Amino acid sequence: MTARAASRSETDAAGDGSRSVNAKVYEALKEQIISSQLRPGVKLIHQDLAERLNVSRTPVRESLERLYQEGFVTRVPRRGFFVAEIDEDEARELYEMREALELFALRRVLARGLTAADLRKLDSFNVRYHELVRDGMTRERMLVDRDWHLALASLANNRVLLRSLEGVFERLILKIRVEGYRTVRGEEALREHLEMMKALRAEDAGRAEQLLCDHIQGARRRLSSHLGELAR
Predict the structure, then answer these.
(1) Domain 88-231 falls in which CATH fold?
(2) At residue 24, does pLDDT exceed 90?
(3) Which residues pair with 83 in a beta bridge?
(4) How far is 221 from 232, CA to CA, in rounded Å?
(5) How far apart, in Å, are the Cα atoms of 204 and each of 111, 135, 209?
(6) Residue 29 has pLDDT above 50, yes or no
(7) Averaged over 115-141, what is the pLDDT?
């Protein structure tokens, strides 16, 4: 190997190593946001994060820029980066997208028909949701609710649709402060799930679609109220 080739190889290796560190830091920070170790509204201090992850500040800075571009963190001039919180406009847009995707999926599911195994799978999420209702609004309860909706949408057998819906839920759940979120809708949401299950078993498409629309719009109104309370 020539000296020039060796030098290029070393440079490429260093570049690959830097990209690997950046990717690991990015994934670690994103996972901490997803798992709520870094909660919505928390300030992200470069040095603290670098020490926590045992890296230099450079991959932290680059990872935060990437997360900013993806909407997981916000950047405030002269104040720095913060874990993103959802606002009224984004909430409206996400719930509009969610409703459109879930209704399209539901129509495909009903046209195909549900098997006994499909219904049992959906029932299992409602059983777990019922167990969590008494604990108030927890992130786990939000995730189980999400999983019920994704399980129903998955029966449409459209992977692009499902990935899009997963992205909508990810942005909604990651950016909502659980603290102070009113819990009274837990029982109501469960009843709505169970009513939808009745409509699915009866293959009543009109009833199922109306229940799903009402359910999603109710969740949107509740989030809007929560955001209003946080703003006061």
Answers:
(1) Four Helix Bundle (Hemerythrin (Met), subunit A) (1.20.120)
(2) yes
(3) 73
(4) 17
(5) 11, 33, 9
(6) yes
(7) 87
Nearest to 132 by CA among 90, 86, 165, 178: 178
> Given a cut of 60, is residue 188 above it in pLDDT?
yes
- Residue that wins the pLDDT comparison between 37 and 47: 47
Helix 139-154 vs helix 88-112: crossing angle, to nearest 10: 40
Distance CA 60, CA 48 (A): 10
**Predicted pLDDT of residue 224:** 77
The tokens describing 54, both together, are 């045992």
Q: What is the pLDDT of residue 68?
A: 92
Give the Cα separation of 216 and 92 in Å (integer).
Answer: 11
- Domain boundaries along the sequence of the chain: 3-83, 88-231
Q: Roughly what angle, to the nearest 10 degrees, separates helices 3-34 and 159-174?
A: 70
* Answer CATH for 3-83 from 3.40.50.10490, 1.20.58.480, 3.40.50.150, 1.10.10.10: 1.10.10.10
